[in-house]
Design brief:
Order of helices and strands: EEHEHEHHHHHHHEEHEHEHHEHHEHH
CATH architecture of the largest domain: Up-down Bundle
Shape: elongated
Number of domains: 2
CATH superfamily of the largest domain: Fumarase/aspartase (Central domain)
Structural class: mainly alpha
CATH class of the largest domain: Mainly Alpha
Radius of gyration: 28 Å
Number of strands: 10
Largest sheet: 2 strands, antiparallel
């Protein structure tokens, strides 16, 4: 199949106009249903405000004679958490509107009105002036409905050749891509902190452990750089994950594409994706990119937990190898002598959250048929939590590394214990015997 001189895969991202499915259920309908006046609270509103807030008919509500109950409304809304995607949603809508105008599906005047309206909505959101409404369900419907309120009829054309299914996946991939970039930067900052700590303690020999038993003497730099290597692999996993997720779902619509002459390569390129996704059903149902992302975060969390465990042990009276500064420590309410390395204990503890986020999404996806199912609304909160937690863990680990002092005298006094040179002595004897022979 060729569109605008570019080859498309035969998986029918764009369904032929003659398709009976396209005629029966056009995914490009851009008309909004009439509004019913039902009163419901909006997010963050007081009871008095709620009485003045009309509840709108849903974008999908054309065949329905009644609105959903307040209980269902509260249970099914996602705006309370998916409004985090507002910037990506607006970015995707800008690209989509520009493509529609380029293809002659909307006028350039309508495109310009849409783009100006989206700019104003973004400004209002960032200034805290935007009214997020629960009866508009999610970030996409909130923005589109606000755009209609702002510019009128042209806004209704923005939904042409687009479904919430491909829209949300586009937003989510963009958000995850941005999140990976932030995590990679935090990883680099932790690596720099560990290398700085190593350079500030050159020549310091510490006991190396296996089974938590003294094994051989090692340079502190050797040990610290082991964590640098682990984080480098963690970064590599995220880079690979980013490359695999960087494909554009726009144009898949609900699951079977559209009969309208869209240019998926144009929107994909405008949004910085490698290419459009090849199969429309896969495009709206795939969550592998999220599972891979959460898996990479979970492995990173385990590495940070191990670092936290080591430093908690080394800060104890029994080891006494490090002293954290007061600025990264806490005390006890009844034991004034205590100085606790709480940040690293919490790094160790919060790793459980990141692992749990991965398990949550694995369990969510394990029994779902193709293509989209409403269960997948639950994919975002674990990702938001995982990203927030791993960024915090990386940041505080880097901060802690720059605020600890190694107790050289204490460490040197402990080195004679434990027969740390036993392996070196054995190697010496083997070499001596081999030379005699």
């Amino acid at each position: 199949m060729v569109s605008n001189g570019r080859m498309l895969c035969s998986s029918l991202i764009t369904a032929p106009p003659s398709s009976s499915l396209s005629r029966a259920t056009p995914s490009y309908c851009c008309s909004f249903p009439s509004r019913r006046i039902i009163f419901t609270p909006r997010i963050g509103s007081s009871p008095a405000q709620a009485q003045a807030q009309p509840k709108e008919a849903k974008l999908w509500g054309g065949r329905f004679e009644e609105g959903v109950t307040d209980v269902v409304e509260r249970f099914t809304e996602s705006i309370s958490f998916d409004k985090k995607l507002y910037k990506q949603d607006i970015t995707g809508s800008r690209a989509h509107a520009s493509m529609l105008a380029h293809q002659g599906l909307i006028s350039e005047i309508d495109r310009d009105s849409i783009l100006q309206g989206l700019d104003e909505i973004e400004r209002r959101i960032e200034n805290g002036e935007f009214n997020w409404r629960a009866d508009r369900e999610d970030v996409h419907m909130n923005i589109e409905a606000a755009l209609t309120d702002l510019i009128g009829e042209p806004a209704k054309k923005l939904h042409t050749a687009r479904s919430r299914n491909d829209q949300v996946l586009t937003d989510f991939r963009l958000w995850c891509r941005d999140a990976i970039d932030k995590i990679l930067l935090s990883m680099k900052q932790l690596q720099v902190s560990l290398i700085t700590l190593a350079l500030n303690n050159q020549g310091l020999i510490v006991p190396g452990y296996t089974h938590l038993q003294r094994a051989q003497p090692v340079l502190l730099q050797h040990l610290l750089l082991a964590y640098v290597e682990e984080i480098e692999r963690d970064a590599g996993r995220l880079v690979d994950c980013r490359a695999r997720m960087n494909f554009c779902p726009l144009g898949a619509c609900a699951l079977a594409g559209t009969g309208l002459p869209i240019d998926r390569f144009m929107t994909s390129e405008a949004l910085g994706f490698t290419a459009p996704l090849r199969n429309s059903i896969d495009a709206v149902s795939d969550r592998d990119f999220v599972l891979e992302f959460l898996s990479a975060n979970a492995i990173t969390a385990v590495h940070l937990s191990r670092l936290g465990e080591e430093w908690v042990l080394w800060a104890s009276e029994e080891f006494g190898f490090i002293t954290p500064s007061d600025s990264v420590s806490t005390g006890s309410s009844i034991m004034p002598q205590k100085k606790n390395p709480d940040p690293m204990e919490l790094v160790r503890g919060k790793s459980a959250r990141v692992i749990g986020d991965l398990v949550t999404l694995l369990t969510l996806c394990k029994g779902l048929p193709h293509a989209y199912n409403r269960d997948l609304q639950e994919d975002k909160e674990p990702v938001f939590d995982s990203v927030k937690t791993i960024l915090g863990m990386l940041e505080v680990s880097a901060e802690f590394a720059l605020k600890i002092t190694f107790n050289w005298e204490r460490i040197q006094k402990t080195l004679p214990a434990g027969h740390l040179d036993a392996t070196t002595l054995a190697d010496y004897l083997v070499n001596k015997v081999s030379h005699i022979r």
